[in-house]
Structures are given as C-alpha cells and as structure tokens.
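Why run this: before we spend reagent on co-expression, it is cheaper to look at a predicted model of the complex and decide which construct boundaries make sense. The entries below are exactly what would go into the expression plan.
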Amino acid sequence: MTEQRPASQPAPGSFLKAVSAVVWKDLQAEFRSRELFSAMLVFSLLIILIFNFALELDIKTRQSVTSGVLWATFAFAGTLGLNRSMAIEKDRGCMDGLLLAPVDRSAIYFGKVISNLAFMLVVEIIVLPVYSVLYGINLFQPGLLFVILLGSIGYAGVGTLLSAMSVQTRTRDILLPILLFPVVIPVILSAVKASGGYLEGLPFDEILSPLSLLIAYDIIFIAVAFMVFDNVVEE
Amino acid sequence: MIIVKKLVKRFGLKTVLRGVDFEVQPGEFVALLGPNGAGKTTFLRILASLSRPSLGQVTVAGYSLPHQAAAVRARLGVVSHLPLLYGDLTAEENLRFYARMYGIANPQARITEVLEMVGLETRRRDLVRTFSRGMQQRLAIGRAVLHDPDVILFDEPYTGLDQDASAMLDNVLKTVAAKGRTVVMTSHDLARAEDLATRFDILSRGIIAASAARAQLHNTNLLAFYKEALAA
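The model came back. Tokens follow.
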C-alpha cells in the first residue's frame, strides 16, 4: 500500500466563491455574445405571436388559455437556452476545465442553475408585457409573478442537470427535450394550474394546492440534482 | 509524485488499460508515447481525476484517486489539445475566472506573472476567440500553471500547431518544467518529446511496454527504441 496524505479540507467560503465565479463567467460571456439570450427571446416572441394569430379568441377564452400559452413559451425557450448554455462548456473542453477545479462539483451545478435561471427570467420579463399588450390581459399580479419565479426555478434546476447529461451525446439538441419534458411535467402542470388560478381570480385556498406542489417539486428536483450531478458529469 | 499500480480501465466490454504500472519521481519530465488508441488520453484523464479507474491504485502528490480527487486537483494542472478557455472572455477574464475557482490569493499579480510567462501580456484584454491556435495553447498553459501545481499533465499539446507556434510552445514548456515540476506529456511528436523529456514510456495495447531514462538511450535514438517497444 502506498502511503496517503490526509484529505485537505476546502477553504471556508470556497463553495460560494465557486458558485459566484461560474455565474459571473456565464453572465460576462453572454453579455458579450448575446447568443443565448437573443435566441431565447426571439423564439419566445415568435411563439406568443403565433399563438395570438392562431387562437383568435374572445377575452374570456384568452384568459383561460393564457397560463398554458405562457408556460409552453417558457418551456420551449428554456430548452433552447439550457442546450446552448451547456454546449458552450462542452465545445472548447471547458467542462473539463470546470471539473478540474478543486471545488465541490455541486458548486458548478448551482452556478449553472443560477445563470440559466437569470437568462430565463430576463426573457420572461420582456415577454410578459408583450403578451399583456397582444392579448389584452394584465399579467403583472404579484401572485402570478411568484408562480413564474417558482416554475422557472424548478425548470432551470432539473434542466441544468439533464442538459449536463445530454450534452455528452452526439444528439444533444434532440435528446434534451426528450429527456426533460417528461421529467419536468409535474413542475409545468403545477405552474400552469397555479398561474391559471391567479389569472381567473380564484381564492387563495384553491391555488394553495398546486402552489404547494410546485414548491415541493422544486425542492425535490434540486435536491436530487445536487446529489447526482457529480456522477452525471463524471465520465 | 505519481504512483499507479495495476490500473485497469474498461468502457463496457472494451478494456483500454490492462494493468498499467507507472511511477514518476518529483521533478521528472516523462513523455508517454504510443500509437493512436493505445490509451494515453484515458490514462491521463484518470490521473487528472476526470475518469474513474475500473481497478487498481492511483496516487498523485500523495493523495489517492478517486477518493481524494479534490486534493489531487488542487495540485494538478492539465493542458489538452482543447484550450479549456472561453472564447467570449478576454485572456485576463479567463484567468481571473480560474483564479477564483482555485481560490488563488492576490490573483491580479499572479495573472500578470502568468501572462508574461506565456508571452501574452500585451493581449490580456483581447477576447480569446480572436487568438490564433498557438496563442490559445499558450494561454491554456498559463491557465494550467496559474495555481502553481506540483504536477502538470500535457495531452498532445502540439496538436494543430504550426512550426512557429510549436517552437514557441517548446519554450513555454521548458520554462514550466524548469521550475522543478513533475510533468507527464503524451505526444506523437518523437523529436519534441526527445528534446524535452527526461524519461520515455511507451504505452501499447493497454500496458507500459517499455520505459527508459534519457541517459539509457545513449546507444540508440528514441525512434528505434519506440519501434522496438511496439514490435515486442
């Protein structure tokens, strides 16, 4: 047996420093290229435009389809962003660069989740007023915005894990939605129900159930992703 | 500095490494040579903690893999044929990002020192995607030595470089190795390996088929030694 040195402990605060470094790097690179953001935004706007022309609905029906249209838009645009965000890491070998850093690998996961979430939220902030104008519906309700935030957290959480998995395959662009949509259905369904509840002006008691489910799914998905990310990214 | 005993690596039914024994003393520069598909990259990825061994023992800088991987990574620098750099960040931003990931104290001074070492001080604020392949590879070496590692692994660092860029990379590699670091380099370029390394190991069919220190090659050249090892 060869003699082993005792394992060194990571420096205090190194986890948060690594998370912030990954977020800073992603935002800085995206600020320069605007590749990911512009693709997501254009795609989102096209979807809501297509729905607007395809569903020539009266005001009441519009209100009832709004939550579905919104979440379909966020889900498709989010997939586009997730794919690109992880492809940037893979294309020049940067994922290996991240994995070679002496930090807990879950710091890389949380860094990527936060930056993916930031991109999604920026796109949503632009899409919501455009949707409001096109469909004549006020989407700026605190409850609805809270549901959109929770849904986006769940989507980015599970999407980042699965994009780290799919990016290692040759068919990554196709594989991510195939993997992601079945897994993320509970988040999307809860988010659609809770959003619909706020839009229809239902009492909070009736919205509480899908809202609680959404919070529970967020916690479960992020906890599972946190536990398995190391195994997913290792060869 | 590096001790590998009976290392086996399998990918499904395919066995790539079949019981590799390998040892490197501190300060040695080992050239790991072998034909395509011999398992050189797989071997280096295991040393770098990017891949888990199927069987066997691997110790780097006194720490065991895969259990003490974070401690190994803190003492290890890796340069591959891919730059591991972000094209939409400047040279300085790339190094600053890695400095934060490695928890380097006083990063600005260290970044300046490293950029001067690899001859890119004047290009520090340029985006990496505007760099030539040779410049990217020099910056990749800067990234690998930023945290002053004890061990550096080079995986085919000359891939895709022209003569001038290769010659410049030679100088950077010599500077890096001259600081007493332990270096393992895989290469197909026997002439460059002969110029740089202090020991030559031939990896063939998943095992170390032959090993010789520079001093042992005085009666023959590296090409003859290499061919003899592959034929055995």
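The first strand of chain B starts at residue 2 and ends at 11. Chain B touches chain A at residues 3, 5, 45, 48-52, 57, 59, 61-64, 67-68, 70-71, 73-74, 76, 78, 80, 82-89, 93, 97-98, 100-103, 127, 143 (CB under 8 Å). Bring this page to Monday's planning discussion.
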